[in-house]
User: Fold this.
Amino acid sequence: MNRFFTSDISDSKAYLCEDDAYHIKNVLRAKVGEKFEVCNGKDKEYIGVLAHVDKTSAVLDIIEEITVNREPKHKYVLCQCVPKCRKIDDVVRHATELGMCQFYPVISERVNIKNAEEYDKTDRLRRIVTEAAKQSKRMCIPLIEKPLLFKDIVKTAPADALKIIAWEEEQEVSLKSAFESAESPESVYIMVGPEGGLSREEVQLAAQYGWISVTLGKRILRTETAPLALIAAAAYHFSDLE
Assistant:
């Protein structure tokens, strides 16, 4: 059953935006009376029956509330140093499926972009995570933040969060040991470097603010593979895949 998000829900009716109305009318070619899932983007989801659709709007009559809680218990925040081409699109899409709650594009020393103002793909990434949230039946659409410099994101992450950096030069601290050192954190921040990796100076700076550099084993993962492996591993360890 197709899913839509809207905050405009009242009097047992859900009012969808123009883009969703277009999708229902011209892509799905749905007729009045067909059923859809609709979510308020926070904590409620429903079954609705299509009552009206035209070129600019669609209205669903809510007939049932769904009581399944689909969101992870922990908040997974991905901080991805901006990779080349459009690799970031796949990262945010698949990370949304795995339970990512928030995403920061990061400008580090070895990315091609040298200031945050040069890179702003926020609108495109928001569209991607919205579609991924619909497909994976998330209750919340992950937040896409504006780009931040590496030195700024490592300082602003909460002190009580578990903060992990995947670093190929780390030889001693395993991902498992980093997870086990945390006592049920509310938030897990994950930092992944660009194709050229993070510099030693960057990792040392992050360590001053409580970030833990970890090894992911003897193989080197691509910059678009590592964040997905880390989120999946964290979700498994903290029982968010159950």
Q: What stands out?
A: The chain has two domains: 3-66, 75-237. The helical segments are 18-27, 87-98, 122-135, 150-156, 175-180, 200-207, 226-237. The chain has seven helices and 13 strands.
